């Protein structure tokens, strides 16, 4: 019997927070999970806030939530760009509707806010967008990692170990 290979999508746009994108990608790959990078354009080089590049595998229009087991949204300034794409919001909504794991850290909460999926959910983020998260109906907690069903959220880079431990537990439980 062949074990199913889990697959995750990592959203990307310019000015992502380098650690908040790369650390989750590397941890998931280390766990044997295939991670595809998806941006506005396929085979595009995106540059993080601190200059670390990553190349997208696919464009937003080339991927479907049904083909993946989990979704990651990076922090930095990329979320403010990502939430402007209807395709991104549809992906987030589809993952949420299917109760597939969605990981978000720092400013990534902006994407979930724009997808309108936070009402009544326990979440965390960088304290700078706490009001935004609460105004979107989220129950904001000042904790390193918060799990509420399929949503796993975290505050900022120092919380990455707790965030990824929680995210992997949710992904591997599905």
Largest sheet: 7 strands, mixed
| N/C terminus separation | 19 Å
Tell me the β content.
Answer: 15-25%
Order of helices and strands: EHEEEEEHHEHEHEEEH
Helix content: 25-40%
Rg (C-alpha, Å): 14 Å
Number of strands: 11
- Kindly report the spatial arrangement of strands forming the biggest sheet: 5-2-1-6-7-11-10
Shape: globular
The count of helical stretches stands at: 6
Question: What is this structure's SSE topology?
Answer:
Elements lengths: L6 E5 L6 H13 L3 E6 L5 E3 L5 E3 L2 E2 L10 E4 L4 H5 L3 H12 L4 E4 L3 H6 L7 E2 L6 H6 L3 E2 L4 E4 L2 E4 L5 H14 L1
Parallel strand pairs: 1-2, 1-6, 2-5, 6-7, 7-11, 8-9
Antiparallel strand pairs: 3-4, 10-11
Overview of this protein structure:
The longest helix has 14 residues, at 160-173. A hairpin with a 5-residue loop joins strand 3 and strand 4. The mean pLDDT is 97. With 174 residues, the chain is α/β, with parallel strands linked by helices. The strands form 3 sheets. The chain has a 7-stranded mixed sheet, sandwiched between helices. The chain has a two-stranded antiparallel sheet with strand order 3-4. The chain contains 6 helices and 11 strands.
Question: What keywords describe this structure?
Answer:
11 strands, alpha/beta, 22% strand, 174 residues, two-stranded antiparallel ribbon, 6 helices, single chain
Short description:
The chain is α/β, with parallel strands linked by helices. The chain has six helices and eleven strands.
């Amino acid at each position: 019997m062949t074990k199913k290979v889990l697959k995750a999508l990592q959203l990307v746009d310019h000015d992502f927070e380098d650690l908040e994108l790369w650390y989750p990608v590397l941890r998931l790959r280390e766990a044997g999970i295939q991670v595809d990078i998806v941006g506005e354009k396929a085979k595009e080089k995106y540059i993080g806030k601190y200059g670390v590049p990553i190349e997208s595998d696919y464009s937003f229009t080339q991927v479907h939530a049904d083909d993946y087991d989990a979704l990651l949204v990076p922090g930095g300034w990329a979320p403010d760009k990502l939430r402007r794409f209807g395709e991104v919001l549809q992906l987030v909504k589809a993952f949420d509707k299917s109760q597939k794991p969605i990981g978000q850290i720092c400013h990534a909460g902006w994407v979930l806010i724009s997808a309108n999926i936070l009402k009544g959910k326990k979440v965390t983020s960088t304290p700078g967008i706490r009001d935004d998260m609460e105004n979107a109906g989220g129950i904001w907690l000042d904790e390193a990692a918060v799990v509420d069903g399929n949503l796993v959220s975290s505050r900022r880079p120092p919380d990455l170990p707790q965030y990824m431990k929680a995210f992997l537990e949710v992904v591997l439980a599905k």
